Amino acid sequence: MLLLGTEELKSAEHILKGLFPESIKVYGCLFNINRGKPVFWDVVADSWPDFRAIICKPKQQSIQDYLDRERDWNMHHIYAKDKESLVKLLGTSGVLDWSQFTLLAGVDIRHLDAVKELAVCNNTPTKMGETVFVMTLEDASHLKGPERDLASGLSTLTTAHAEMVNSVWKYESSKSSYNSVVSYISNYPSLCVTAEDGTPLSWLLLYHHGALGRLYTVPEHRRKGHARLLLSTMARALLEQGRPVYGFVEDDNDASYSLFTSLGFSHKPDYRAVWFQLNPR
C-alpha cells in the first residue's frame, strides 16, 4: 500500500481520466483534492506508478474535528481494474478496520463476489446497498437552453438553505448530513429555482466526489421542468469548467433514468456501482 502525495495525486488524476466511467468517482475526489477543496481523505494505491487499485479513505485524525456524512458513514471511494487487485488492496493491513462500520461507496458489481468472500474471511457481516447506473455526459449537444420564464427563477443556494435541503434527504437527516450540505453549498457549484420571494422550489448540488446530487423538487412544484432546467444548466457550466459531469441513478428509478438519458447522459451497459456496507448498522 502506498499513500499518495501531492505529485502522485496529480498524476493519478490524469491517469484516471482515461478510465471512465469506472474511475470517475475516485477521479472526482482527486479533482477536488488537487484544487485545494477542503476534503479529508487519504488516497492509497496498490502500487505506483502502475497502480491497479486506488481508494480514497477518511483521514482518521480528522473524524472528531468535523463530523460530516462521509466520515459518519466511514465512506471509502474505490476504483480497481480487476477484482484481484481490489481484494489485495482491501486486504492490506491499515486499509480497512474490519470491525468498524464502513461504506464501500461504488464497488464495481463485477468485483462484488470477491469483496464478499474477503469479508467472510474477516468474519465481517455485510449488507447490499443501492445498485446504480453511473450516468456520464461528454458534451452539451443534447442540452437545450432554458425557456426565459423558467430561467428567470434560477439562483444559487446559500448556507441559509442548508436546513431545508437537509430536511428532505431521502436516506437520513442528521447533524452530520447537515454539515455535509453546508460544505457542498460553501465549496461547490449549486443551483436552485426560486419562488418570487426567493424560497427555493427545486435544487441541485455537487458532492465532494464531483457527482451531481441532492436533486429535489418540492412536491407541489413538480412536473414543471425544474429538474430538467437545473440538470441542463449545471451540466453545461461544469463542462465549460472542465469538470466531470456525472450522476448516479438507482437501477429501479425509471423516471430519473429517463430524465438523464433524455439530456444525453449515458452509461456503460455492463457496469453498475454498488454501495456495500461492512458491519451494517
Automatic annotation (TrEMBL):
GO molecular function: glycine N-acyltransferase activity
Annotated N-acetyltransferase domain residues: 152-281
Keywords: Acyltransferase, Transferase
Pfam families documented for this protein: FR47, Gly_acyl_tr_N
The keyword Acyltransferase belongs to this UniProt entry's keyword annotation: yes
GO cellular component, one term: mitochondrion
E.C. no: 2.3.1.-
Keyword Acyltransferase: yes
UniProt enzyme class: transferase
InterPro entries recorded: Acyl_CoA_acyltransferase, GCN5-like_dom, Glycine_N-acyltransferase, Glycine_N-acyltransferase_N, GNAT_dom
Family: Belongs to the glycine N-acyltransferase family.
Name of the featured protein: Glycine N-acyltransferase-like protein
Organism: Synaphobranchus kaupii
Upper taxonomic lineage: Eukaryota, Metazoa, Chordata, Craniata, Vertebrata
